[in-house]
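Let's do one together. I've listed all components of the complex below, 953 residues spread over three lines.
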Amino acid sequence: MSKDGLMFVGACVIVTLFFMIPAFSFPGGTTDGAPGPGYFPILVCSVILLLSTILFIQYLRDHKKYFQQNETQKKNLPKLLIAIGAIILYTILFMFIPFIPLTLVFMVFLNWLFGRTWRFNIIFSVVFTGVIYFVFNNLLHVML
Amino acid sequence: MRRRIFLTLLVLLAVGSAFAQAKYPTKQINIVVGASAGGTSDTVTRFLAKDIEAQLGVPVVVTDKPGGSCSVAFEYMAAQKPDGYHLMYMPVESAMVKAMGFTQLEPKSVRYFAHAMFLPATVTVNSKSPWKTFNDLIAYAKANPGKVTVGNSGTGSIWHFAAVGIEQVCGVTFNHVPFDGGAAAATAVMGGHVDVATVAPGEVLAGVKGGYLRVLAIVDTKRSALYPDVPCFKELGYDVKILAWGAFAAPAGTPDSVISVLEAAFSKAIQSQGFQDLCVKYGFTPGYMDAKDAQAFAESQARWYQEEVPKLKLK
Amino acid sequence: MDWIQAFLGVLQPQVFLYLVIGVVSGGLIGALPGLTATMGVAVLTPISFWLKPECGFAMLIGVYNSAIWAGGVSAILINTPGTPASIASTFDGYKLTQKGYSALALNINTVYSVLGGLFSSLCLIFFAFPLAHFALQFGPAEYTTLALFGLTMMVSVSGISPIKGLLVGFLGLLFSTVGLDSIQAYKRYTLNNSALLDGLNFVPMMIGLFGIGEILYQIYTSDSQEKLVVAEVKGTKQFLTPKEFGKLAPANLLTGIISVIVGAIPGAGGDIASIICWGQAKKMSKHPEEYGEGSLEGLSVSCTANNAVIGGAMTTMLSLGIPGDAVTAILIGSLMMYGMTPGPQLFIENNPFVLTLIAQLILANLVILIFGLTTSRIYPKILKIKKTTLWVVVIMCCIIGSYAINNSYVDIIMMSVAGIFGFILRVMDFPQGPFILGMLLGRLLESNLRRALSLTMGNYSIFFTSPICIVLLSISVLSLVWPSIKKQLKKRAA
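Okay, and this is what the predicted structure of the assembly comes out as:
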């Protein structure tokens, strides 16, 4: 039995149900016989549920541990989770905080997380933020 | 003495504020477009932006924020500071999105300051089709209700309404087939997959020039400069209710002084020879309106769609 | 005679200069994840209006071709497709980089992109009208079967476990249903957010899945003891031998033909073409097991495919005035700005200009060849910088790039979610390719299926009466059963 595998299948089923259940209450097809908006999602969801079942059985026989296979990965896990958290936080704050200060902090944080020297960290972050701001805001007219 | 100081201050304040008003614009003006690059909205806005830039002496940057028939850009613009530096190109969809349930915003929520042009629908068929005139088509459609397939640029889009409007005034029933955009609908007519397309004049121009398509009528009160031989709806004896259009607006609360600067600049740009030429090339009908008229027009359109959309039974 | 003039016209210093400017800026735009060819052309279009038509178009054609080519560069070096058309180049290209053959992979990308581009230019010269008329035959029913054929490629791009690939692929299809449904404009899974009305934007999902997913995987698996450079460049081999070149020829010729046709069909572009061709070439290859593990053939096919689409898309644009993809839609807009209406009439009225366009297309490819081969030694130096530097750079490029596409906040959040999803897929040995394929084909399949049925009042027989449908359905079935037939044949032979 592969625990991670079963969890993945479980997550797939939950996501699929999130799509499938509302689909049954979508309006029906048009009067001319074309199927309605729920037709395609329900079809796709049914196939996913079928495939999930097959995979579920496969994982019951499988004994592979996908996460935490070796020492390196175990050691890197905190770093990974912090990086993911930082990326998500950055993308959410992107809406509310002006680009330059937010990006500077984000980049200094990432460089620190990846263990770079402070000198490199500061110079790199300032220069790179400036380059990105110039290229996107001034050359490509993206509203940052 | 004190009174005098007070008066002087008052005068200074008045002069100062007048000065501050005269200073608009001092920095870059942004115009958002609720559609992708290369489309009608984007082309019109970029063209006028160049003119405005020259007139006001500040950079004018056009940004595309496509999504939800312009409602994404609409929501973005309405939430900006009302300082005159955030404007938006308002297509006809801006009067429809509330009725469609895409957003809570409507023309009343913002300040229109210039109306630029109108864009009529064409009634276009394949050049191999048996219908030589609009009346041929209507006669066939009356005899065979629901048989004629009409391609439009998407359910609830302006060209869908155009086809519905034709159904109403001519007393016929079509089989409406939505496509992903007007060009796709025109292509489907060229390939013979649908009978008719009700899309913009520019979208069928290549097909007409190449002999693949035939325009039967222009859904407008005037003939189109692109197709001088094609009768307009008024000539055919029908009433026209549905036209696409384009205008410009700023967030609610933008001061009158700023609006009047924008109004003057856009009035000049829209009535310039260059823009009139652009209109001819793309098949638009030039139709400048000032701030007051543009606002009133947009609001009256919104009321109309508020009544008509539920009749489509989309939801 | 006209041709000589057209070429001489393009070789005028001024026009040629703008062509080179276009190629160089396209090279940068395409190589940055998130900056697509569409965006490059859109950004440069307003600038081109200040120029003479032939100069403006030289620049736009340069950007278009070069951005598609350069999309392969980042696909090969950092496993992130620079443009959607280079998704399939990640499958083999990145594996070659990991093995130390980045220079070879980059040169293959350049040479085959250029060959694809030149082949499609020739098709444009000789078969523009027949091709365009064939493309017109594609109505809703034909698109539906084309999308179904595309779906059968899920199995090929799945790697070792078809079940896993199919599951991921159908999840992609499911995610493509978010947004207004394209027939009844009903709001599906939009969570009352207007930014979701048009569905999940494909490009940010792709960037996240491949780019961020790969970086997170590297963070997770990098040993700090190991020398922290991305990849050693050990292979001295930089070019294919003539013999290898000959071996790759048949697969690439077929790819070129398929891609030109796919490109000519409006609404189906380089992204779909390159995955279909890669999957098809894998099925027909003598060594399908090498595909996805650094196969030279696989890489060359995907590179040929994405640039061969350009000529196809230009075909429908020039001969019928119909956009074959998003870029040609913008190009039509700028042609109209110059007062020219693309279409059959353009061929007659402005014939010298059409010849100039085609000459520019050919020259742009030659410039890319020179530019690509000279820079292929420089690009791999990127890989010698410390891994952690590259991580930060790629993460930033992915985030800002996905915002830049539509100036949308929702896009960057979707991008980071897709990144985490991509990482989980990698760890769990699931392929990412099918998910992207599902997202690409979902809308095409669903909207055309329902459109076709609304045209026929719900009668499915339309799919079995059109000749194109019958052919596409048969090869779909054939491509599903072919691997097992091949096995049987081998057994019998043995």
